[in-house]
Design brief:
Layout: E1 2-7, H1 19-23, H2 33-50, E2 54-57, H3 67-81, E3 86-94, E4 108-112, H4 118-133, E5 150-151, H5 155-158, E6 164-171, H6 175-182, H7 184-204
Parallel strand pairs: 1-2, 1-3, 3-6, 4-5
Antiparallel strand pairs: 4-6
Helix pairs in contact: 2-7, 4-7, 6-7
Length: 205
């Protein structure tokens, strides 16, 4: 199984940063999503490789690579290996509000496209790992269709051939979530959640 790890946005993406980083709103929590997502993606990649899994970073550039190019890269791999032998995880931090002030929105979540696919199964393993690793943190779910993941037609999910899940790893527009995202404890838990969920999904096949 080839595991493609995608990281959200790029150095040139407007916004996508904590209220302090964008507008100086105290407390002074400096988080730029492109940098944070690349750090987390690299840690997930390294941990999977160390455990003997075939992981690859989809985007190694700092600048934002457009979504069509990201999907094209993923689908080239699918065409070579077969779409059932590839999975994609896209790593993001969440945000809410106008970006100028801290707010109360919190939590971790995972998205798949509408309908039932193998992506839902992968997401469910990630949710189970999240329950184990994010003690005391909010986990956001939509149980209306019988599983935990939220659904949206995000481009990176809709136009890749393989099972694909986009994770929103807490809100960097919330003080408590942002502190967690920046902490060693939080980073380790986020990485472990992805690694555990991915491995358990692969083992289930």
């Amino acid at each position: 199984m080839k595991i493609l790890i995608d990281n959200g946005h790029g150095v040139n993406t407007a916004g996508k940063r904590s209220p302090y980083s964008g507008y100086g709103a105290k407390p002074a929590l400096e988080l730029l999503e492109y940098r944070w997502a690349r750090e987390i993606a690299a840690k997930i990649y390294l941990e999977l490789r160390q455990q003997g899994y075939d992981a690859e970073l989809l985007v190694t550039e700092d600048q934002d690579i457009d979504l069509a190019t990201r999907c094209h890269r993923a689908n080239l791999t699918c065409n070579v290996l077969g779409k059932n032998n590839v999975i994609l995880i896209s790593i993001h931090g969440n945000a809410f509000g106008n970006g100028r002030t801290w707010n109360s929105a919190r939590g971790w979540s995972a998205y798949t496209t509408p309908g039932t696919t193998k992506s839902d199964t992968l997401a469910e393993y990630l949710y189970r790992a999240a329950e184990e690793n994010f003690a005391g943190m909010k986990i956001r779910r939509d149980l209306t269709d019988g599983d935990s993941d939220l659904e949206a037609s995000f481009y990176i999910l809709k136009y890749t051939l393989c099972p694909a899940v986009l994770t929103e790893n807490f809100f960097y527009t919330n003080v408590d979530d942002c502190k967690y995202m920046l902490s060693d404890e939080g980073k380790k838990a986020i990485v472990k959640t992805h690694v555990d969920g991915i491995i358990r999904y692969i083992d289930s096949l």
